[in-house]
Sequence to fold (178 residues):
Amino acid sequence: MTTLILSGLGAAFVLIGTLGILRFRDVYSRLQASGVSDNVGTALIMIGLIVWGGWERHDATLLFLLFLLLLTNPIATHSIAKSAFTRGHKGEGQ
Amino acid sequence: MPIVEAVLLFSLVAVLWRLLRGPTQWDRLLAYNSASNRVVVLLAITAVGAGRSVLLDVAVVYVALSFLGIIILARVMERGGGNR
Fold:
């Protein structure tokens, strides 16, 4: 039950992030939508997978994978935004 | 759990549409980042659901390689690579 709630919430966040990536008009807006809601959705689905079926042997690897995703995703988003800003790419209304 | 997999697959296809269509090169990079995130989560769900722990190691390597590729491509585009 807990894993169902957590995974459903994470899937909802992923869906909202996909909607933002598809519908926003600007690189920076899309980066904001993707960077926030994808991170939360991925982390929620991962936590739902960890609590699925009690403590098992592969849960340590799942925890390491969650740590790795939470470490690398904001760095990648920041790097893309910095690359677009340094090249002088103008957003909507700038 | 199949509904979560269905939602992830649908959003993977939608993000790949942005990767094909994106007006600028940074849109494609962002879509690649999101698509690799969804692929990693799908790999983890498959590994736990089917009881194959090998796929978790595959997912860890996938995260590291996609992060490396995104950082290198963003750095190349920052210094004048690409076309727009």
Q: What stands out?
A: Chain B has a mean pLDDT of 90. The two ends of chain B are 42 Å apart (CA to CA).
